[in-house]
Amino acid sequence: MNFLKSFLASILGTVVAFIFMGIVFFMAIAGIASAFGSEETIKVDIRENSILELDLDLSVLDNVAATQEFEQVLGLGNDVLKFNNVIAAIKKAAKDENIKGIDLQSQFPSMGWSQAQSIRKALNEFKAEGKFIYSYGDYYSQKGYYLASVSDSIFLNPLGGMEFKGLAAEVLYYKDFQDKYGFKMEVVRHGKYKSAVEPYLESEMSVANRTQIQSLLNSIWGTVSEEIETSRSLSAAKLKSIAEELTASLPENAMEVGLIDGVIYESDYDAKLKTALGLEEDNKIRKADLNQLTGGNGLYKKGVRERIAVIYAQGPVLYGEGTEYIIGQEVFLDAIQDAVDNRRVKAIVLRIDSPGGSALSSDIIWNALMKAKEKKPLVVSMGNVAASGGYYLAVAGDEIYANDLTITGSIGVFATVLNAKQFTESIGINAQHVMTHKNALGFSLFEAPSGEFRASIKEGIEHVYETFKERVAEGRNMTMEEVETIAQGRVWTGKQALENGLVDGLGGLEQALEAAARLAELEEYNITSYPKIDPEFDDFLSVMGPFGSIQEQLMENYPKEIQAFLTSLTQKTERPGIEIRLPYTVEIK
Fold first, then answer.
1. Confidence at 541, pLDDT banded by 50, 70, 90
2. Does residue 324 sit within a domain?
3. DSSP E strand stretches across 355-412
4. Residue finishing a domain among 294, 326, 357
5. Which of 144-148, 233-237, 297-301 bottoms out in mean pLDDT, i.e. has the lowest?
6. How much is the pLDDT for 292?
7. In a domain? residue 183
C-alpha cells in the first residue's frame, strides 16, 4: 500500500512539474511572439549590395491573431504576411541604400485584388527610386502575373506555363435541387440586385444579377489590363487578343507575345540576379527578408508619441463577441472605446475587409463609430471587400478611401429561413404542434413559414433597408432618392464607387493614414493596432495540442462561403436570417 501511495505521489509530482514547466515555456514563447509584434522596430543590419527576397505566395491578411503569430514563432501552421508590413518593407527597401533590387515571387498569391493592387503600387514606387525588380516562376496564376508584371524582367520555367484569360465568375443555382430533395430556403429580400438569395429562387441567373456581375468584372479587368499595358508597353488591343485567344499559355508563346522576358531554369535566373547586382559568377547573392526590414511595426518612429489607431474590421459581421477574423460588437465596441480613451491616439482609421452580415451588430458598431468621431477624426480604408454590413460601418467615416479594385456598396437587405418540410415528410417524419396562438410556433425547420411570419420578417427587412439608406444619406450627404439609385443591393468597384459618391478618394491604407494625419494636424505619428485580443492560456494549449489545429485544417479545405456558413452556425443571432451581406459569394477567377 505504501509503495502504491509513493508511486501515485511520484506520478502526481511529475505531472505538476510538467505543467509548471509548460506554463513557464508558454510564457517565454508568448514573450518572444509579443516582441515580434511590438510597435518598435527591431534594428537589423542589412549588408551592402543586397536584394530583398519578397515571397508573396503566402496568405496576406490585414490583421493577424496573436495565436497565429505564436504558431509562426514555433514553426507551426502556415506562414501569414501582415499586409501593412509588406507595404512597409517595400517602402523601407526603396530608401535603403544597401538594397539594390527585389527578387519577387508571386506565382499563386493568396490575397484579394485590392491588396494586390496596393502592393503593386508600392513595387512601382520602389522602381521609381532607380532600383530593379526581377521575377521568376514555374507557373503564374493570373493574379500572380498581375503582380509580377511590374517587374523589369520576368522569367518562366521552360516546362512551366501561365494563366492569362480575362476574368470569370461562377454562381451555383439550387432551385432544382430544392424541388427534387425537399430542402427549401424561404427567402425575403429587398432590392432587385440583392441576389445572394437568387440561387435559391431561380434555376438561372437573372438579367439584373448578370448585369451587375458583368459590370464588376469589366471594371476590375479594365484596371488590371491598363496597369499591365503600361508596365509591359503593350496595346489594349494586343492584350485583349492574348486573353481571348489564350496565346500565352506556353512559356515560349508568352515570351513571343511580350508578357515575359525569358524562358530559363532557376539556376540561370540566379545568374541574372548576379548580373543585375554587378556580381561575378562565383559571388554569393546577399539577400534580405521582410522581417529584417520591419522587425515589429515597420512604420514605428522612435521618440514620436502621437499615434493613429488602426482598427481592423476583418471577416463577416456576426452577432456576439467577435475575434480578429469575425466582426462582433463586443470586441469592437471595446476596441473603439480604447482608441477614444487613449490620449496618445489623435485619429482613428477603420480598415474594413468584410462582406457584411448581421444587421443588428452592424448598427451597434456604426453607432459607436459615430460617437467616436465626435472626439477624434475617423477615416475609413476599404480593403478587398467593404460591402453591405461592411459599407454600413464605413459611412460613419469623415472620409472614405477605396482601391480601384475594392468591392463595395451592396446597400440592400435579405433574410433566409430553411424549410425541410417536404424532405422530412418524404422520409416519414411528420411534425405536430400544439400552440396557444396561431403564430406561436414562429420559425420551425419542419414547417413552411406562415403568411404572418413572412410578413413580420418582411417588415423587419424594410425597416433595416430604410435605416441603411438613412445612414448612407447622412454619411455621404445625399438625399434618400439619390441613395436609392445606387442601392437595391448592387455592388460596385472602388472606381465606380468614387463616381457614385460612395467614397471620397482612391487609395489604400497609406492614403487613409495620410488623411487621418491631415485631419488631426499631425506631422509625424506612429500606428497602434486594434482590436487587442489577449489569447487565453487554453488558446496556446490548443495550438500545441496534437489535435489543436485539425479543426482549422479541415475548415481551410472548405470553400470560403461554406467556411462563413459553418462559422455563423456557432454564433448567436438576434433574429433568424436578417442580414446585410454581399449579394453573392463568388470567387473572381
1. very low
2. yes
3. 356-358, 378-387, 399-402, 407-409
4. 294
5. 297-301
6. 86
7. no
- Residues with catalytic annotation? 194, 388
Residues 142 and 90 occupy one common structural domain: yes
The residues near 206 (Cβ < 8 Å, ≥ 6 apart) are 195, 198
pLDDT of residue 299: 56
Check whether 407 has a pLDDT greater than 50. Answer: yes
In a domain, 209, yes or no: no
| Domain match, 348 and 397 both | yes
The mean of the pLDDT values for the chain is: 85
**Residue 507: closest CA among 117, 228, 127, 147:** 117
Pairing of strands 413-419, 184-190: antiparallel
The answer to whether position 588 is within a domain reads no
Ranked by mean pLDDT, the top range of 24-38, 40-54, 159-173 is: 159-173
Same domain? For 254 and 361 the reply is no
Domain of 549?
307-412+455-581
**Which amino acid is it at 157?**
N
- Strands 262-263 and 153-162, by their bridges, are parallel
Closest CA to 577 of 395, 428, 415: 415
Residue 288 main-chain phi, psi, to 5 deg: -110, 150
CB atoms within 10 A of CB 430: 8
My answer on whether 386 and 484 are in the same domain is: yes
pLDDT tens for each residue of 206-221: 988 899 899 999 999 9
Which residue, 256, 272, 294, sits at the end of a domain? 294
What is the domain-level CATH number for residue 504?
3.90.226.10
Q: Say what the pLDDT of residue 2 is.
A: 55
**Strand, helix or coil at 449?**
coil
What band does 417 get if pLDDT is binned at 50, 70 and 90?
Answer: confident
